[in-house]
From TrEMBL:
Listed name of the protein: Aspartate aminotransferase
Lineage: Bacteria, Bacillati, Bacillota, Clostridia, Eubacteriales
Species whose genome carries this gene: Desulfofundulus thermosubterraneus DSM 16057
Occurrences of domain Aminotransferase class V (ranges): 6-326
Keyword Transferase (UniProt): yes
Molecular-function annotations in GO: alanine-glyoxylate transaminase activity; L-serine-pyruvate transaminase activity
UniProt-annotated binding residues for substrate: 335
PANTHER family: ALANINE--GLYOXYLATE AMINOTRANSFERASE, AMINOTRANSFERASE CLASS V
Presence of the UniProt keyword Membrane in the record: no
Cofactors that this protein relies on: pyridoxal 5'-phosphate
Length: 383
């Protein structure tokens, strides 16, 4: 059964059949009235996910392209930036700012730890000249969820803008862009939004626009003023991926039909079951419960078993793909995604495969113990 595969990585994630069908519709002109109507529908729906009254720009590029868009429109050479780092993608955000000439003040909280609000408060008090603060909502590389509401409250008391990487969180984890005072929020299509890679979505606050309009850094494809001008006519500045727009429209319909609160509860439940299963198998979780991501779980490989060897057995024997570690955690952890088009049976399959792969590699696993722990959570009998 070579074609029977289970994709359990934090992007790209499985795409629902209804979204695939939507993307298969006949092509339309991207300057047509049909596309304008599609774009208008998407705008109404995506604002609900972002929880904002502001415009959300749908850009044809990757999540990293969305992050670069945020930086390119705000940062000029010499600007001071505070980067709050809890893993690989926090480091990437800082690297983008540095590429645009920013003087980046990095605060690394350690891979597996969340942002410490007390440290942020002290940094902002001692350094009033920051142009922007960079934060990651959901650090994919470590399975850590950061307190964006708390960070937003601190940054809002300063002239600095809060730029948030929500790439692996938005759509699976609640975020309130306006209420939490996020100035630029970025996400992408291939994670909790249940689409193939290729779209970035960028929300922009009025506070951010005041800075963007004064920014003189070079930008062309990544220009938010150009995107704003085009959106006024329900268009895009440059050629969009029309098929992905069709898919996004369908994916948003699925999310809103389920109900956003139910979407967020589903992700929390899947994470809880996964973590319970991992503990039942005697394995160690990277992130503590108080900062655990609802969309991806990072697990230390047991002593004597290389994480990548475990992943190889899972893939080759059972058709299950887990993600590996990144950066300083490469080869040391594996990551189980439960985001987007994911449900209870996906978690049970993943844990069942993990048990068998561990057994193959000589780990003293009691088959069924992890699966049972997850089942108990799903049945509400874990209390």
């Amino acid at each position: 059964m070579q074609e029977k595969q289970y994709l359990m990585i934090p992007g790209p994630t499985p795409v629902p059949p209804s979204v695939v069908a939507a993307m298969s519709r006949p092509m339309i002109g991207h300057r047509s009235e049909d596309f304008a109507a599609l774009h208008r529908r998407i705008q109404e729906k995506i604002r609900q996910v972002f929880q904002t009254s502001q415009e959300v720009f749908i850009l044809t590029n990757s999540g990293t392209g969305g992050l670069e868009t945020a930086v390119a429109n705000v940062i000029s050479p010499g600007d001071r930036v505070l980067a709050l780092i809890t893993g690989n993608f926090g480091e990437r955000f800082a690297s983008i700012a540095r590429a645009y000439g920013a003087e980046v003040d990095e605060v690394n909280f350690g891979w597996g730890n969340p942002v410490d609000l007390a440290v942020v408060k002290e940094k902002l008090a001692r350094n009033p000249g920051y142009k922007a603060v960079l934060a990651t909502q959901n650090e994919t590389s470590t399975g850590v969820l950061n307190d964006i509401a708390g960070i937003g409250a601190l940054v809002a008391e300063t002239p600095a803008l809060l730029l948030v990487d929500g790439v692996s969180g938005v759509g699976g984890i609640e975020i309130k862009m306006d209420e939490w005072q996020v100035d630029i929020l970025v996400t992408a299509s291939q994670k909790a939004m249940m689409l193939p890679p290729g779209l970035a979505m960028v929300g922009v606050s009025p506070k951010a626009w005041a800075v963007i309009e004064e920014n003189r850094s070079p930008r062309f494809y990544f220009s938010l003023p150009a995107a704003k001008k085009a959106l006024a006519k329900w268009n895009t500045a440059y050629t969009p991926n029309v098929a992905l727009f069709f898919g996004l429209d369908a994916a948003l319909d699925m999310m809103l039909a389920e109900g956003l609160e139910n979407v967020y509860r589903r992700h929390l439940l899947l994470a809880k079951a996964t973590r319970a299963a991992v503990r039942a198998l005697g394995l160690s979780l990277l992130a503590a419960d108080h900062c655990a991501s609802p969309t991806v779980t990072a697990v230390h490989s047991p002593e004597g078993i290389a994480a990548d060897d475990l992943r190889k057995v899972l893939k080759e024997e059972f058709g299950i793909t887990f993600a590996g570690g990144q950066g300083i955690l490469k080869g040391k952890i594996f990551r189980i995604a439960h985001m987007g088009y994911a449900g209870k049976m996906d978690v049970l399959i993943a844990i069942s495969g993990l048990e068998m792969a561990l057994a193959r590699l000589g780990y003293p696993v009691e088959l069924g113990k992890g699966v049972r722990a997850a089942q108990e959570v799903f049945l509400g009998r874990d209390l």
